[in-house]
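Problem: given the chain below (262 residues), write out its structure.
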Amino acid sequence: MLNIKGLSFSYRERPVLQGIDLDIKKGEIIGILGPNGCGKTTLLKLLNRNLHPEGGNVMMNEKDLEDISKREIARHIAVVPQSNEIRFAFTVRDIVMMGRMPFLGQFQGESSDDVGIVEDAMKKTNITSFADRLINTMSGGERQRVIIARAIAQRPEIILLDEPTLHLDICHQFEVLDLVKRLSDEEDLTVVIVSHDLPMVVKYCDRIVLIHDHQIFAAGTPEEVLTRENMRTVFNIDAVLEYDSTLKAMSVKVLGSCADRC
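Solution.
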């Protein structure tokens, strides 16, 4: 789906990413992990051509993103940004319909097919009952579901999520990521999640990429990547990945900071 080779980027001559090599496969949920300022969000923006690489390239279905129009990219890749604040009084249906914009001509209104796709996206995200509510009257968790519905309405092959649970309470965090997982399974979507939340990433991601010192430090399954030594090096914490008999799944247990324990 996405093939990243030798990707590099700097802000005002300050290196942020250097020599990133990564293949993102169809249908997988992949987590991009690392401490604040390591380049996670920058990488996500390069995958959507919101930034242009200094070196290397991003290939989508064997085509360089630099040679593809933004409209065409939006027909394949949808983005759920870190902030879902919307200042204008659009209805939920209006917001979700914005996902169809890459498929409409300059003076073309939405078709019956577009309306059907929007209704389907709202149904899948369980927001049909408040389709006519104003977006700026809704809670953070509700707004996040609306933004995901807008992304689904693009009928993308890939969804990029930047810290999707950052401003949500615990209940809404699970609600949003359960939704993303279900849609990935049902629609065979490729999902890329940028996060610093180790337990959440372990629960939902098939594969993890750990970024440290501007490069990929480790990549693979949670068991392969989240070793005690790797978490000490990258996050400066003492933590272990272990089987939780209650959850019946692997889970990260944080024991403390390395300043206290390591």
